[in-house]
Structures are given as C-alpha cells and as structure tokens.
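Schema walk-through. Below, the input block comes first and the output block second. Nothing else is stored per chain. Lengths vary across the set, and this one has 312 residues.
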Amino acid sequence: HEQFEPAFVEKFVSAMVSGAAVPATCRRRGLSLALGLFTWIWAASSKVCSFAVGFQRGSTKHLRSSRILRFAEEDDELRNAEDIEVWDQPFGDLALDVRELMVNDGCFYFWGPDINDYAKDIKTVMDAINYTLEDFDHERFEPATEVMSKLEHGFIIPPVQSCMRWPYKISQCGLQVWIDNDGNEKLSVEAIEKVRSGKSPRKKNPFGPDQSEKDRKKSNSEASDPLDMWQNADVHVDLQWHREAHPDLPVTHIIMGSIIDAILKSPAKWRDWTKAAKWRGTIPSDYENDWEQRRKLFGWGCSPRLNKLLNA
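--- output ---
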C-alpha cells in the first residue's frame, strides 16, 4: 500500500516530468503502480460494458439453458394437448374439430325420445360451429324433401315424427345423432341384423336350395320400431354412461365429443384413399382435394389432437 501514498506518487510523477533519473526502488514501485492502475481501469471498463449489454460476463450459458428449458416446456405442452382424451378438450377445440370433420358441410339430424329437453344444448352446439338450427316440423314426405338440399343446418326431429319411417329416410342424407337418455347399448351391424331377423323371420323355401347370403342381404326388412331406427344412427350420445364416467361434463361437451369420436372411429373413405395414393406416389405428397382447399381458405383450423390423428 506504500506505492499508493500521495508523497510517493508526487515524487514519482515529478521525476518523470523533469527527466531526472528515477531510483531503482521508485522504478519498481512505479511499475507496480502502473500495473495496478491498468488493472483497475480494465476491470471498471469491463463492468461498464457488461452493464450496458444487459447481463454480466459469463451469463450467456444461463441464458442459453433458459431458452432450451422454455422450448422443452412448449414441446411438453403441445405433446400433452395432442395426447389428451376427447372428453378433456375445451369447448373451443371441440367446436373446431367438429367443424373440421364436417368438411362437406353436411347437415345434422338429432332425434331421441327426450330430444326436446336438450334443444337448448343442441342450439349452443350449432351456434359454436356456425350452423343454422331448425325444427323438423314437416307433416308430409314431399315438402320435407326440401331440407335435403340445404347445407350447414341442424334439424331437431320431434319424438312423434322420429318414430315414423319417412323422416328416418330423409335423415339418412346427413349425420344422424341419437340423443339417448335411457342408457341403451349401441349394437353392431351384425347384432342389428340378428334382432331384425328375429322380429321378421324369413320364410323357408319348401322346394329348392335356400337363399344365398348375397340375395338375403338385399331383401332385409325395414326397421320395425323406433329403437331399431335409432340404433342405425351414426352417432350415439349415451348421456347416462357419461353421467357416471364424467359427472362434471356438460351436455354440449358430450354431444360434440361423441360426434368427433364416432367420425374418427369410422372415417371417410376418401381420407384413407388419399393417404394410400400419396404413399404409392400416385399423387403428390401435398395434394389437397376441393374440400380440403376450401377448408384451408375458410376454416379456422383444428386442435392439436385432431391434427395429430389426421396426419398420422
């Protein structure tokens, strides 16, 4: 600390200015003083520069690790959004997925014994996907056929008319949604055929061979009661099962989730055909049909879950 005393500094500076010989001790102390001043100035300038940049020297490693951690958290969030169940999706994602899967803008036909009790929930679903809801109040078949030319509509078929055969024929032009509040089991195609054959047995041919299986399928009888017609619905909304499995799930979520689940279990054939053609190289890998191009221009996208399932 002696080399930083005021008397020594004054003596050293005066000797350097006058050009006189500097003693050896002063030279050694002066050299130490110069090195000390240089070290202090360099440290101060580095601190100032580091403060101007915004982070201290050596903090870039921490910054890089924080960026990697943030990207990893975003990937985890996207992965979790892709792997959740359809019943855990929010209302907005469900509406986007239903609208994306109804790429041809087809109509919905809702029926069931207690359909009037859920008219408000159906109206909420139709408004969310930008569809127009109407009551199926036609009394005869000829005027009712006009609804077959409409797009982006939803129709509530009253219980009395849903028991008739002619509204059932018209509803086959759209997506049939069965609102079931009684806990009925949705039967497979084989089980439905077995029930029908039991209610209307075939007459055995007294002469000659029995009817072949191919001709037998062509002569199937019509549905004999309302429950048989409802069993042929494309979507089965089992409210009683969902009350036990998902007690806090709203009816609107159950309806849209059931529609998405039913469409994904039985997807449109053109999706599989297009995917197979891309694998074979028959069409380009970025090929899009008219429905997909229109949905890309006017659609609002879909949830990460549906995007993963459609591009799998």
